[in-house]
Design a protein that fits this description.
The strands form two sheets. A five-stranded mixed β-sheet has the order 2-3-5-7-8. Strands 1-4-6 form a three-stranded mixed β-sheet. Helix 1 runs parallel beside helix 2. The protein has a single domain, classed as Transcription Regulator spoIIAA, CATH 3.30.750.24. It has 118 residues and is α/β, with parallel strands linked by helices. It is globular, with a radius of gyration of 13 Å. It has four helices and eight strands. This is Anti-sigma factor antagonist. Belongs to the anti-sigma-factor antagonist family. InterPro entries: Anti-sigma_ant, STAS_dom, STAS_dom_sf. It holds the Pfam family STAS. One of its GO terms (molecular function) is anti-sigma factor antagonist activity.
């Protein structure tokens, strides 16, 4: 898994992994989500548009980040367009917890497409 980001945008951490998120790369993904800052981010956007495969270990890292962020009044939102990523969220029942956003800007503004559009 390579990365194009992370960046901090208006108090929101944006991570952009590239490639696969699996058991071997999940620790690096976790590090991206957490960041190196002393204070963990409350708001995180995971831009998965360059991810073509994610397994349950990657999903677990997203769930852990979501729990941590929600504990301090924040959120984790996910941008994705690859069918394999969408399939994982739908098959595991996490599509409602992680609605699909089309862009980082849409995720930041909480502008998710309607479920009927999926």
């Amino acid at each position: 898994m390579n990365t194009r980001c992370p960046e901090l945008r208006e108090g929101c951490r944006v991570v952009c992994p590239v490639g696969e998120i699996d058991l071997a790369t999940a620790p690096a993904f976790r590090d991206q989500l957490r960041g190196n800052d002393a204070a963990l981010p409350a708001f995180v956007v995971a831009d998965l548009r360059q991810v073509h495969f994610i397994d349950s270990s990657g999903l677990q890292e997203l769930m852990t980040a979501r729990t941590r962020c929600e504990a301090v009044g924040g959120w984790v939102r996910v941008v994705y367009d690859h069918e394999a990523v969408d399939l994982l969220f739908r098959l595991t029942g996490y599509a409602e917890q992680f609605p699909r956003y089309a862009s980082v800007e849409d995720a930041w503004g909480d502008r998710a497409p309607e479920a009927a559009d999926r």
